[in-house]
Write a structure and sequence with these properties.
Keywords: Membrane, Transmembrane, Transmembrane helix. The chain is built from 3 helices and 11 strands. Strands 1, 2, 3, 4, 5, 6, 7, 8, 9, 10 and 11 form an 11-stranded antiparallel sheet that branches. The protein is α+β, with helices and mostly antiparallel strands. The longest helix is centred in the N-terminal third of the chain and has 24 residues. A hairpin with a 2-residue loop joins strand 4 and strand 5.
Length: about 220
């Protein structure tokens, strides 16, 4: 003789109601876990756009050339730091933070060893196609050549107090410098990394060639 209890329970003695409860996702609990993660990702995106994570990745073992006929910006901040490659080797650089950067053109080139020989990885943009722009451009460079014109400048300022470029600050007690409006003509630099937000590369061209021509 069957009973209501027999109908509601399966072979394992688990009721349909219980199975329903087990199958449900506890959305309130899941949301409580997910919201902080979403906020963290969003915050990281903002920090990256500000250039604060410019030196957070391991650099390759190859420096590269960067050049431009003219670079201008609403602000500049710089201090010395060390970039590291995956093998732990350190590369001393001058971190150069540039606020709202405008370049008449840009060229980046790196020599890369391959089984076929040394190739030149080259990227160019700007020129006749129009200006190149970037927010919070950060270059970790070994050197920088060019004819520069600065607005107000502060040389020897504590790197932790730099405030001309968002997110570009060094360690307390370290040497730093910053300036207002800048213009550099004939830019040439050897760099280990370059990052930025809102890049607009008009007329971009990428090429890889054996024994290709570099920027300079």
């Amino acid at each position: 003789m069957s009973t209501d209890r027999d109908t509601d329970e399966g072979a394992g003695g688990v009721t349909d109601a219980a199975r329903g409860r087990e199958g449900r996702v506890r959305w309130r609990k899941s949301a409580a876990v997910a919201v902080p993660a979403v906020l963290a990702v969003g915050a990281m995106g903002v920090v990256m756009a500000q250039g604060a994570l410019a030196a957070s990745f391991a650099v390759s073992g190859t420096s590269f050339q960067v050049s431009s006929s003219k670079l201008s910006s609403k602000g500049l901040a710089s201090y010395v730091q060390t970039d590291r490659s995956v093998d732990g080797k350190g590369h001393p650089v001058a971190l150069l933070g540039i606020g709202e950067a405008t370049l008449t053109d840009i060229c980046q080139a790196a020599e890369v060893d391959t089984p076929l020989g040394t190739v030149v990885f080259k990227l160019t943009a700007g020129g006749p196609a129009g200006e190149v722009t970037a927010s919070n451009l950060v270059i970790d460079g070994e050197d920088l050549d060019g004819d520069a014109t600065f607005g107000t400048a502060q040389i020897g300022r504590d790197a932790s107090t730099l405030d001309r470029v968002d997110g570009v600050k060094g360690e307390p007690g370290k040497f730093g410098l910053q300036a207002g409006d800048i213009e550099v003509v004939g830019v040439k630099s050897h760099a280990w990394s370059a990052t930025g937000g809102n890049f607009r590369l008009k007329g971009m061209r990428l090429s890889v060639g054996l024994d290709g021509k570099k920027c300079f």
